[in-house]
């Protein structure tokens, strides 16, 4: 009997590594390279370009994509761990994606297959990280529960450890973030950057403070805001004319979680009625060669227009900055037209 490891140590086999690299349009020969920051950065960015954050698996069982078109119902249709073989097949064979509990552990297995060391840590997400109040002067403070996972990566001889995340979706950092207080990385365009702070969980002064506090790591994103707003920002912000605020994205403690922990957190994220993933349909990825522009298709029931359920497709960010959604179109929330859209725009493969 093979004992399952307590802490996640899954590593892809050489043939799986080659298939994964081909999937993200990198040469399979990279598997022969020694671990390095250059290799890590290349593989990490390629994953953001080619593997979407994708909640469609939550709402549509694979068998429902074939046959007569039917309405897509927002629900929890997934009740098993999307890890290991299932997630690998979905990402590599079917050219689809997953949410954080599928994408990050599978990417961790790829990195281990390339010779990197990876720790998986549970993460608390700031739910309103991109939302300002009505006066556009204060970022609303609203921390969610522990429903996210981040990877901490290093290798023999590395000078730093790095935080990576291929499951955050919109606003996620596609550059490895050094794990030290004040570390800052520029994004793919002059309008965005991220910084890491070692601190207790930030909370609204109006909230009751926690009794016991252990300092952890908070990821902040430089977020453009409407002109004329006044904000404080960290002094190491990039020099750009766009007014901005540093908004926290997520916070974690540097403590590896076990395989069973991953199962517990993932089960809540995919099955609990209050879990965020059960309430929205989202497929989103970065577009290569655009300075970080993102193409997304998304739907929630509050988006119904005149009684018609249509998912909105739009492009945001990139070299033009956060000037608002553009290239907007709509896709009916039915399996027939949505399948055709996902095949055309995201390269999903449904027949294998």
UniProtKB/TrEMBL annotation:
One of its GO terms (molecular function) is acetyltransferase activity. It comes from the Eukaryota. InterPro entries: Arylamine_N-AcTrfase (IPR001447), Arylamine_NAT_domain_sf (IPR053710), Papain-like_cys_pep_sf (IPR038765). It holds the Pfam family Acetyltransf_2. PANTHER family: ARYLAMINE N-ACETYLTRANSFERASE 4-RELATED, N-HYDROXYARYLAMINE O-ACETYLTRANSFERASE. Belongs to the arylamine N-acetyltransferase family. This is UPF0029 domain-containing protein. It comes from Mycena venus. The lineage of its organism: Eukaryota, Fungi, Dikarya, Basidiomycota, Agaricomycotina.
